[in-house]
Amino acid sequence: MRQQRPPVEIDRDLCVGHGRCYNKAPGLFYADDMGLGHVKDVIDDNATPPDLARIIRACPESAIHLTATS
Ligand code: SF4
């Protein structure tokens, strides 16, 4: 079953394309043609449950943030 977009966002002003997000969690993130990270709208079927705290900590630029949930 497909899952909804993960509750994170990438600050476009901070992301410089280290690639740790999409290398550690390719089911949640992808790279554009500049190597910058983006959050997928839908989590891949075969993605392992995301450890978002670990992924957030892994970004050297602190560009990944939790989004507010209602
Ligand atoms: S790890 Fe951080 S800086 Fe690198 S691509 Fe992902 S969001 Fe951007």
From TrEMBL:
Q: Which cofactor does it need?
A: [3Fe-4S] cluster
Give TM regions.
none
Report the Pfam families cross-referenced here.
Fer4_15
Has keyword Transport? yes
Task: Give the source's domain of life in one word.
Answer: Bacteria
Instruction: Supply one GO molecular-function term.
Output: metal ion binding
Return the InterPro entries for the record: Fe-S_cluster_ET
Keywords assigned by UniProt? Answer: 3Fe-4S, Electron transport, Iron, Iron-sulfur, Metal-binding, Transport
PANTHER family with a match to the protein in the record: FERREDOXIN
**By what name is this protein known?**
Ferredoxin
Which organism is the protein's source?
Answer: Aeromicrobium ginsengisoli
